[in-house]
Design goal:
Radius of gyration: 24 Å
Structural class: alpha+beta
Distance between the termini: 61 Å
Strand content: 5-15%
Low-confidence stretches: none
Number of strands: 4
Helix content: 40-55%
Mean pLDDT: 85
Strand order of the largest sheet: 3-2-1-4
Number of helices: 4
């Protein structure tokens, strides 16, 4: 197999890493995105110079630099921590603001502490109205 074909295979592997990160909702914290990008750029440089070994060296060096020096800083900037964990029972009794109309026959949405929740009501509620959570049924208020 030629060096060019091996390098092209690495570029395809890098694209696969990007697809996995973007479409499969894995909890990798963007590591696959970074590694895929490193692999793709290294592959293009390797194709430019016609060297599979250059590609491997660049992938290895850039990955090592990322994991040893940059990963922690990158995650601090990119990965957003959960604002607040919810104990569902704690939501009962809280005030909420209606964000989409709620009818007796159709659920709508309310906002509590910056979080959007599905909600139902026996009466019609318009967006902007303030309401109080009476109970939770499943994940519906």
């Amino acid at each position: 197999m030629s060096a060019s074909a091996l390098t092209q295979g690495l570029v395809i592997f890098g694209l696969l890493l990007l697809v996995i990160e973007l479409f499969f909702n894995l909890d990798t914290g963007f590591d696959l995105l970074v590694l895929g990008t490193i692999t793709i750029f290294s592959g293009f440089i390797g194709l430019l110079f016609g060297s599979f070994w250059l590609t491997l060296a660049l992938v290895g060096l850039a990955s090592l630099v990322y994991f040893l020096l940059l990963r922690k800083k990158f995650k601090q900037k990119v990965v957003v921590p959960m604002e607040q964990a919810y104990n569902l029972d704690a939501v009962v009794g809280q005030k909420a603001i209606v964000t989409t109309e709620i009818l007796s026959t159709k659920a709508g949405k309310v906002k509590i502490n910056g979080q959007i929740w599905r909600a139902r009501s026996r009466s019609r509620l318009k967006p902007g109205e303030k309401v109080k959570v009476e109970k939770i049924k499943g994940i519906t208020l």
